[in-house]
Amino acid sequence: MNEHEGRVAFVTGGGSGIGRATAELLASEGAWVAVNDLDTSQAETVAESIKRAGGRSLAVAADVCDGAAISAAIGTTVSAFGRLDILVTSAGIQRYGTAEDTDEKVWDEVFAVNVKGVYLTARAALPHLRRSDAGSVVIVSSVQAQVSQHGVAAYAASKGAVSALARSMAIDEAQHGVRVNAVCPGSVDTPMLRWSASLFSDGSPEGIQRTVDEWGRNHPLGRVARPDEVAQVISFLASSRASFVTGEDIRVDGGLLAAIAVQARKTEP
After folding, report:
1. In this structure, what CATH number is given to the domain that contains residue 74?
2. What is the pLDDT of residues 208-240, one digit of tens each?
3. How far does CA 120 lie from the centroid of its chain?
4. Three-state DSSP state, 241
């Protein structure tokens, strides 16, 4: 199904995880895709993978925290492909700590990537998206924009911020015909999740897998998500099928937030 035929997408964090799955899916559905990542080799690997599969792609390495660099990357994309219709912001980092013990530099690092990076990328992309007949922005947030676990103060705060940013942008950009939504995944089997799992295990591949499996059992569906499952929702939000959807937080969490920890027990009279 080539529902994105003739459209151009720019995907940050496109070198791995949800970003890579999204870039590859959009390309398979007909979009021309600019793969952005801080890691040049990862961006090029994904772009080449898309080309081998018969798609059109461009690797545009740039730091989302650098306004001039990400603006240049957007400019390169528009120069190469002639337009911009879809922006997906998937670049993000995870750090652990409470409000008390998180170092100020760590806090600033998380907000620079997870929040400022979205703002800078959107600021550069919006003038082009407004010229599209169906511009769309999809921000990768997290269920931790709405709930939190212990010891993720900076990360949870940053995801709350980008979900709020998505709502604000949706209101501001509606007059220009640009829709803005956020997806809020639960645990997804990405390199970032496995890095996190390494901190809570013995660090061996087996230990990491056991931790990932344990986290998966916290979801009612009994497992963590695959990146492509989140990418499918992103593709839908970017498509004409979601033409009246804007300002939304869409959870992709395997039922995680639908459940409560307290289990009722039936007692015999």
Report:
1. 3.40.50.720
2. 999 999 988 989 999 999 999 999 999 999 999
3. 15
4. helix
In a domain, 261, yes or no: no
Number of domains in the chain: 2
**Domain match, 127 and 238 both:** yes
Note the pLDDT of residue 193.
Answer: 87
> Do residue 23 and residue 152 come from a single domain?
yes
Same domain, 195 and 62: no
Give me the active site residues, please.
Answer: 155
21, 88 in Cβ contact below 8 A?
Answer: no
Strand partners, 100: none
Q: Which residue has the higher pLDDT, 191 or 107?
A: 107
Q: Which of 190, 194, 193 is nearest to 203 (CA)?
A: 194
φ/ψ of 10, rounded to 5, equals -120, 120
Q: Is the model's pLDDT at 263 over the cut of 80?
A: no
Inter-residue contact 29 to 241 (CB < 8 Å): no
In DSSP terms, which residues pair with 254 in a beta bridge? Answer: none
10 strand-pairing partners: 34, 87
7 Cβ contact list (under 8 Å, min separation 6):
30, 31, 32, 85, 86, 132, 134
Residues spanned by the domain of 91? 8-186+228-252
